[in-house]
Amino acid sequence: MKRLYLIGLFVFLFPVILLATDAKDDYAMSDFMRVSKPEGKRLPVSYDIAIVKFADEKNEVQIDLIGAVHIGDKEYYAELNEIFKKYDAVLYELIADEDTKPTGRNESSNLLSSIQSGMGSMLALDFQLAHIDYRAKNMVHADMSPAEFASRMSERGDFTQMFFRAMTLSSKKNSEDAAKEEDRMLGRMLGSFLVSSNPALSFKRLLAEEMMSQIDDATWIIGGDGSAIITDRNATALKVLSRELQNGKKKIAIFYGAAHLPEFVKSLEKDFNMTRTGMDWIVAWDLTKDKSARK
């Protein structure tokens, strides 16, 4: 039961946090996220997200996949805003009506956004919609409308599938060792609030490491072998990508949650005949500084 509870916790938080150059058949979300820890050191120093680069040299086209974390350091979003200026178009995710551009003022207009904003405050992090400059001319909405998303979720039976995948995973991991691991994590979580001299920083480090340890399981629960949350929204973004390429755009970024990157990588390689040329990392969470007292 504990295992099911903890998996459920990470699935709930997932939207909040929410490579070698040779192609391979399957990718995992953990290929595109990492917790950096210097060799021989106990504490992590950063939680990093990938920028995966692709090229079609024949047509002089560059496509970059830029992983998004929905709560992060203010400096992370400032760096992204500078990076975005280099592209002809930046395709962004947002379940909203066509061409919707967030202003930052409506960041708490729904339950999920309110949860994200609240989690950010607890961890001394900032909310994505409040800091990304969606008003820039090259920002292009590339996601489903709420009506389309709800319809596809219903048709696929996503909620039912997620429940059964969570139950399946829980039963596979229901062991004495798993129970001990859960007790250890809960103890560390409690200690981060009651014992640590810097609860926000301590909990942020703990969450980054625990999230990485379970991120692929959480991705499978959410996405499975296809879902509206991942597969159908990716398909929508790729239709917009095709449109932008047909309109002559040569340098394009797809700015989507890191959970979407594994399927995007496979699609660019197989359906768009793109060649992966490299990968950079960007720090989403600095795990060395106390930002809880910032203004």
Order of helices and strands: HEEEEHEHEHEHHHHHEHE
* Alpha-beta content class: alpha/beta
Number of strands: 9
Q: Into which percent range does the helicity of residues fall?
A: 40-55%
| Shape category | globular
Main β-sheet description: 7 strands, mixed
Q: Round the Cα radius of gyration to an integer and report it.
A: 19 Å
Distance between the termini: 41 Å
With helices defined by DSSP (H or I, 4 residues minimum), what is the helix count? 10
Instruction: Provide the number of structural domains.
Output: 1
Mean pLDDT: 78
Proportion of beta-strand residues: 15-25%
Low-confidence stretches: 1-25
Structure summary:
This protein has 295 residues and is of the alpha/beta class. Helix content is 47%, strand content 18%.
Describe this structure in words.
The chain is of the alpha/beta class and 295 residues long. It has one domain (2-286). It is built from ten helices and nine strands. It has helices spanning 2-13, 74-84, 111-122, 128-131, 146-156, 158-172, 176-194, 199-223, 228-246, 261-270; strands at residues 33-36, 46-56, 61-68, 71-72, 89-92, 126-127, 139-141, 251-257, 275-286. Strands 1, 2, 3, 5, 7, 8 and 9 form a seven-stranded mixed beta sheet that branches. α1 packs across α6 (158-172), α5 crosses α9 (228-246) and α7 runs antiparallel to α8 (199-223). The N and C termini lie far apart (41 Å). The model is unreliable at 1-25 (pLDDT under 50).
